[in-house]
Write a structure and sequence with these properties.
- There is one protein chain.
- The protein is mostly beta strands.
- It is elongated, with a radius of gyration of 22 Å.
- Strand 10 and strand 11 form a beta hairpin.
- The protein is built from 6 helices and 31 strands.
- The model is unreliable at 1-32 (pLDDT under 50).
Amino acid sequence: MLKRSDKGWRIRIMAAIAGLSLLAAPAAPVNAGPKSFAYLDDGRTYVPLRLLGEYAGASVSWHPEEQRVVLRKDGGEIVLHVGRTEAVVDGRAVPLDAPPFVRDGVTYVPLRFAGRALGLEIEWRQDAGAVRAVRGDGEMRLPAVPVGSIRKDAPPVVHETREFQVDGRRVKAQMITISLMDPRVELDVVVAKDEVGRTEELGAMAERHGAAVAINGAFFDAYTESDYKKPYGWLLNDGEVLSRGDTFRRATFIYDRNHLAEIAEGLDMPDLIRAGGIDGAVQAGPRLVRNGRVDLDVEGEGFTDPKILSMSGARSALGITRDHRLILVTVPAATIPELAEIMLQAGAWQAMNLDGGASSGLYYNGRYLTKPGRLLSNALIVKLEP
């Protein structure tokens, strides 16, 4: 995410979070418009030239009549033409392993050339399906998607009722899949009545925010007689910390402005926030799936309640696929190991449990697919832009 600092333009993995006393408040991001990502095609990775150029401290100019891009940095000049497998670097012809191309008004160039020409250390993050570019003490990550996978004629949100075979029985699940890279999709973390500590119907939260989808989020103190129902763990939205979870190791769903989503460990959150760029977060746990395999450490995440350790009950979960889709699932009855297997069968590369029991709820297109048995403290919602 681009931000202004005393040293000039820089991109960090995360944007600093306003309102968190131990952290500096961020300035407005430069690229706060459409999502940015890398493309995968024919075994190659392509990155947006202007974004990486600005990150590396270069000026970038586009000459549409000639289909030409010019980068200037530290007195040097790089010239590329769309469709040509040759660049001119400081007057010398340099071969490219693939030609630049333009898509949706953005010029993309081969990753290897971009890193070499701009002096960036670039690596592939397989766990997150993202390109990581490093310059000095700052870094930028871009989700990578196959060319042609983002289609405006395809629905960004899909609902289905599925049956999963676990431990010799069939479990019926409500499942919603969201294309996170689709420009129409926007995620938000919301709290009841827009005030931390309140409770509200899940459907009311969704309707007030114009959400197409809503699922219950973090655990909260549902049984206190107090009017204040404290949420447990980290909740962030639009870079603002709504609730802290400093003492919890528990799994935390995080995403940045580009909707590059991951599952982090709760104890890492202060450092991740300080590094900058987290747009939203929901902490719950336990983690269910890591890198395409069931990965459970329920007690290690600090859970002691038999409802989590051993009992079967209504569950909610979220998963992230390798191609940057978000899977939201509710089931009427499952143990945590069974839920992990369900999420793996659903296609999750990473997955975690959300609050469950009477809190388990899923709302879609104005109706409940799973109706919670209580008022809720918070929710993860999906809005669709025109």
